[in-house]
Amino acid sequence: xxxxDGAPVAARLSxxxxxxPGFRSQIVxxxxxxxxxxxxxxxxxxxxxxxxxxxxxxxxxxVSDVAVPFDEDDEFCPDLALLPAAEVxxxxxxxxxxxxxxxxxxxxxxxxxxxxxxxDQAYARRGIPNYLVLDPYRxxxxxxxxxxxxxxxGQDTIPYGGKVTVDTRIGRLTIDTADLPVDPGARx
Length: 188
Description:
The protein is α+β, with helices and mostly antiparallel strands. The chain is about 20% helix and about 35% strand. The strands form 4 sheets. A 6-stranded mixed beta sheet has the order 3-6-7-8-9-10. A two-stranded antiparallel sheet has the order 1-2. A two-stranded antiparallel ribbon has the order 4-5. Strand 8 and strand 9 form a beta hairpin. It starts with about 20 loop residues before the first strand and ends in a 12-residue tail after the last strand.
């Protein structure tokens, strides 16, 4: 993002960078939020990254945990997002949400409300075309599309074990959910 003078705007989260190892940090509703990272979070993100990166057209790349300032109260760090490669090459600390073609979040203990509701509405309001929620605790993937001012108008919930297809403006992307980890206490 740039300020009115054209200079890059640093993410507010940058001052906390590396201060809390083992935790993911975000700003939600004006409050600093720390979420512990479990092994399945990383495994899900890496698997998703590998699958999507192999399908992306030239000019697009995956990024993970980069700051995306939405407004004065919210600065999210999507677990995975698809951005234009030219923007990724700039190696910024923050990117505007308008650049994101797809955002994906992996549910962690304690983040379900944030991932299913808060981010759903924020991502849709800012026009992010596709949103995925990967949930190792319910063993399913939720795809959301057709953003509007009150959230996404389209939604499918697909149990882990099959393939999820997401039609994006940059092409059709397929995720094999059989490869995603499932928490031993998962409920359907």
